[in-house]
Amino acid sequence: MSDFQAIHVSRSHTIKLNAPLKETFLLFTPLGEKKWAPGWDFEAVYPASEETVENLVFTTISQDHAQSKAIWMLTRLEPESHRIEYVRIEPESKIGKVIVSCKQGIENTTLAEVRYIYTALSEKGNEALAKFTEDFYKQYIGMWEKAINYYLETGEIIDE
């Protein structure tokens, strides 16, 4: 029996987007993210059309020094309630869930709660999650807010 004990973390933060809900929710789909996230790209596994549907499976390669591959599945798509959920697996490191819930804010804004729930699968995953602090997460999601609002204002991807 292994001595490995997995770290489990849950982080959540709400960002304010400067556009109404009808313009922002789809920015949290894989195709939508390509519009605003520097370096974001994905390869569809199923369906190959890249259509945003429940059970869409795709892969990404991280832009960090490790160049690790992640496998994603869109597990819940609820456009009427503005909620989208993914499962994300990095086989050598961690498994997680990404949940985005949007609601209309005041004066044509959107409030988007972004929650990450991760469990390490290895010591490498434990090391990564030890760095996934509340402060780190707020900065990380704060960059999402900045990048999405830049896109909403200019129609372009922000320079990294």
Poorly predicted spans: none
Round the mean pLDDT to the nearest integer and report it: 94
**Spatial ordering of strands, largest sheet:** 1-7-6-5-4-3-2
CATH topology-level fold name: Alpha-D-Glucose-1,6-Bisphosphate, Chain A, domain 4
Can you summarize the main beta sheet?
7 strands, antiparallel
> What is the radius of gyration?
16 Å
In the CATH hierarchy, what is the superfamily? START domain
What is the top-level CATH class? Answer: Alpha Beta
How many domains make up the 3D coordinates?
1
Cα end-to-end separation = 44 Å
Helix content: 10-25%
Q: How do the SSEs run, as a string of H and E?
A: EHHEEEEEEHH
CATH architecture: 2-Layer Sandwich
Describe this structure in words.
- There is one protein chain.
- The protein is of the alpha+beta class.
- The chain has a single domain (8-153), classed as Alpha-D-Glucose-1,6-Bisphosphate, Chain A, domain 4 (2-Layer Sandwich), CATH 3.30.530.20.
- 23% of the residues lie in helices and 37% in strands.
- The protein is built from 4 helices and 7 strands.
- The chain has helices spanning 21-24, 30-33, 123-130, 134-154, and strands spanning 8-17, 43-46, 57-61, 69-78, 83-90, 94-104, 110-120.
- Strand 4 (69-78) and strand 5 form a beta hairpin.
- The longest helix is centred in the C-terminal third of the chain and has 21 residues, at 134-154.
- It starts with 7 loop residues before the first strand and ends in a 6-residue tail after the last helix.
